[in-house]
Amino acid sequence: MQNRTAYSGGDRSAQEDPDSQLTVELASVVSAARRRATRDGDHQVDTAHLLHGLLEWDPAVREVFDGGQQVARLLGYLVQRSIGYGLQWHGTVEDSGAVPMVTEGGVPGWSPAAAAAMDGALDRAHARYATRAGCLDLLAALVDDPESRAVEVLRRAAVDTARLAARLDGDQQPVPD
User: Fold this and answer.
1) 58 touches 29 (CB < 8 A)
2) Is the pTM of this model over 0.70?
3) Does residue 2 form part of some domain?
4) InterPro entries per the record (predicted)?
5) What CATH number does the domain containing 36 carry?
6) Residues in Cβ contact with 122 at an 8 Å cutoff, skipping those fewer than 6 apart
7) Inside any domain, residue 177
8) Would 175 be classed as within a structural domain?
9) Which residues of 113-140 are buried (b: 16+ CB within 10 A; e: fewer)?
10) Rounded distance, CA 66 to CA 58, Å?
């Protein structure tokens, strides 16, 4: 299993084209997160940008939330990011403390927490012998960092992140609205 690959810089071939290790859907999510960060005037893609992209682009991610009111609440918080909720994040680097703060040699344009989540998604994919990480891999990696902006948004939308993590790890019970 490869460890710390495309987004933190461990594997040279992955560094040259890190998106080659992502499914088409996840590559679309990453592109959407990059566009959203640029449009919002943020200097880095953070975990909330990634969560927003996942919810918009992947039906399987929305199904994990049982599709209903939770998805609407989540999207509501995420859409309000640039006009209210989340303004405290504007111009700051997301460093959840889950990984050491990257000061030099980090991933340009990515917060340390977002880069760690992408690495976590790749690790999950490799653990099941998949060559590409998918959207649910990224969602699970986002939920694994309890101090990330994505988890803050999930909690504000009344998502039980422990139950969500269990569901993503194989529990088949839907996360209630």
Assistant:
1) yes
2) yes
3) no
4) Clp_N_dom_sf
5) 1.10.1780.10
6) 2, 5, 6, 7, 21, 133, 137
7) no
8) no
9) bbbbbbbbbbbbbbeeeeebbbbbbbbb
10) 13
Give the Cα separation of 105 and 123 in Å (integer).
20
Residue-wise pLDDT tens digits, 90-139: 455 555 444 444 444 467 889 999 999 999 999 999 999 999 999 999 99
Decide: 145 and 121 in contact? Cβ < 8 Å.
no
**Domains contained in the chain, number:** 1
For residues 156 and 46, the answer to whether their CB atoms sit within 8 Å is no
Q: Which residue range(s) make up the domain with 68?
A: 12-168
- CB-count burial class (<10 Å; 0-12, 13-18, 19+) for 8: buried
| 96 domain residue, yes or no | yes
**Is the per-residue pLDDT at 39 higher than 70?**
yes
Asked if 121 and 141 count as a contact pair (C-beta separation under 8 A), the reply is: yes
